[in-house]
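To whoever is on call:

I kicked off a structure prediction for a single chain this morning and the downstream step that reads the tokens threw a length-mismatch warning. I double-checked the sequence; it's 350 residues and nothing unusual in it as far as I can see. Pasting both halves so you can look.
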Amino acid sequence: MADETPPPDYEMVNMFHKALGRESSHCEACGRVVDGNDIGDFNILLLEENVFTPENHVVICRRCEKRDGWREAVRKKRAAEQPQPPTSIRGKLRNLPDSIRDYVTDPTARFLFARRLGVLAVLLVGVLLLIPPIAAVAGALFVSPDTGLQWFSQSITTITVVSNMPLNTLAWIFTGLFGIIYFAHVAERERNDPTGWAGEWNPPKWYALAVYSAIGLYGAVTLILVAIESVPIGRQFGARIFWLVGSLGIAYQIKDALRLDLVRMVWQPRRELWEFPTRYGFVLALTAFAVGPPASLPTFTTPFLAALTPTVSAAYIIARLPHDRVFRDKCIAAQDRLLELLRIRDNDDN
């Protein structure tokens, strides 16, 4: 059986049954029928290391298992079985409705989040366009035709006022909607997307996360000091550069750090509780830098929003360290080495 380290919620028997049912108890490398009731006749291995999806489990006979090229044979077989997309313009146009349906309905599509933003934009525009005729029909049916025309005009006026909102207000409205959608996206991907488990050979991602956190915190703290006039305002530009580099690195690195900790079973953090505030905090700070804080909040809110991403990242690093046996062993070894060096130095002095 597979010897890679599975995620904590991995159900081996269920996965094996799915693989056998999918392949109808045939070897995927040579097509030979295997006995689904006799484990001695076949094995179930992973095509890609540390990817524990049902599709990645391969039913393989014992003869093919000993071959070095069984993975390549399985990949070629699966590629040949995949329906090939049309290459002609006519074929692409004929296939367009199916492509759109797959893009809209596939829950694991790569552009799941972009699709949601697009649907939200369409819904908002559609609602705004439908309000005037709905108001006119409701007024005409339930009151009078003149009332329907009056409500139609009033709804047009209201939409015009909304469209003329200040840039600051519109930017924060869309930032808030973006946060709601992104949180739902992250939570759903954690429940339903088992891909992305990093290999055991990958170096620890939290090392880079710690460096980015230090850079981002330095920039954010400097911005706060500039806001309260404790340091010269001339340091503001450099502080923003430090904050941008650190926060951008955190937003990029946090997802890989979480997945690597999960696959190595260092600890079991809730991904959405760490990934969402670090990435969305970056968006909040960018909005504040671009258009200023919300109208009801003071100006010095912006540097505090900038501190959100590096602060959460630093908290993640601190929270994981007690669970990291490798890091703890290295600290103990370094402490022992330091004590040994001090003991040698004391002996030399004596």
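Update from on-call: the warning came from a stale cache, not from the record. Cleared it. Sanity check on the structure: Residues 179 and 280 are 7 Å apart (CA to CA).
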